[in-house]
Amino acid sequence: MKMAKVNLNIVALAVTLLLLAETWAQNSKKKPSPLKPVKGQCCDEVRSLKVQVANLSSLLEELSHKQETDLKNVVRQIMELNKQNRQQEARVTEAESKYSEINNRVEIMQLQTAQSATQTSSDAIYDCASLYSKSYKISGEYTLPKDEFLGTPKLTVFCDMETNGGGWTVIQRRQIGMTSFNRDWKQYKSGFGSIRGDFWIGNEHIFRLTRQPSTLRIELEDWEGEKRYAEYGLFNVGNERNSYKLFISNYSGNAGDSLRYHNNTNFSTINKDNDKCVDDCASLRKGGYWYNCCTDSNLNGVFYRYGEHLKNADGITWYGWHGSYYSLKKVEMKVRPVGFQS
Ligand SMILES: [Ca+2]
């Protein structure tokens, strides 16, 4: 509205200027042969008109300057409002995530309380399967409480409560590619990475989780978006003194049995060569794994992005599906107790 008013003012001024200019032109035409006194009168008139024109132009300039300033102010106000809006949105998102986190914690604390009241092993929360059986059926991050009875420490886990009946504790994920898996024995022992991103849960935790008869499920995805899986009906690892030795059996799935070659081998890392080879497989394949001599699969290998994914033998490979040189886009390894029922 304000803008339109300013525009009208400018148009009106322009019209006035035009009229003045025309009047002056006509006046000068009407007097073709001016006499001396007339000439003086004419020049006075011209001078006065010139002054008026100058005044009007400066007024015009002032108005257009004012219009520009108004426009700038409006734009600035809009930008400021946008910024406030974004800040508010961010605050809401943050509040929501905090709320769900607190909610999660409260629920786990309630579980802990209920658990300490009964103190029997069948009620203990020591994996995602026990959470599932207590009606926690949403996939996501959970904190397993420390359990004196079982001798298990507090542990943050990611539960897959959907795949094939749920109850899966995820022990490994490759998906983002920012976390290096070329790590030493100690790091593989206790675990590394981020539970919502790429991580290795830790050999000590895998040992503990698989003390009860367990199933291992490996889910793979290639760069074309296809998904395959391999499941081992029985899976466990030895303790640290036995170099977290791998035991698997009862393969099923559609990805091929590319862990069989690694069965009954010890875990190796960059600083601990426990493989069955003169070569140092962990250094060659750049990960920690149950290396034989060296791989049929290398799920803790180097994450290669699309375009680089066909060139290297140290990538995230699964021979039974894409051979020794195809580095996969996504991997998840997860465990749950044998006989789990959803
Ligand atoms: Ca070796």
Automatic annotation (TrEMBL):
CDD domains recorded: FReD
Start and end residues of each Fibrinogen C-terminal domain: 119-339
Coiled coil: 46-112
Cellular component GO terms held in the UniProt record: extracellular region
Keywords attached to this entry: Coiled coil, Disulfide bond, Glycoprotein, Secreted, Signal
PROSITE patterns xrefs: FIBRINOGEN_C_2 (PS51406)
InterPro entries the UniProt entry points to: FIB_ANG-like, Fibrinogen-like_C, Fibrinogen_a/b/g_C_1, Fibrinogen_a/b/g_C_dom
Keyword Disulfide bond: yes
Localization per Swiss-Prot or TrEMBL: Secreted
Pfam families: Fibrinogen_C
Full protein name: Angiopoietin-like 7
Gene source species: Mastacembelus armatus (zig-zag eel)
Classification of source organism: Eukaryota, Metazoa, Chordata, Craniata, Vertebrata
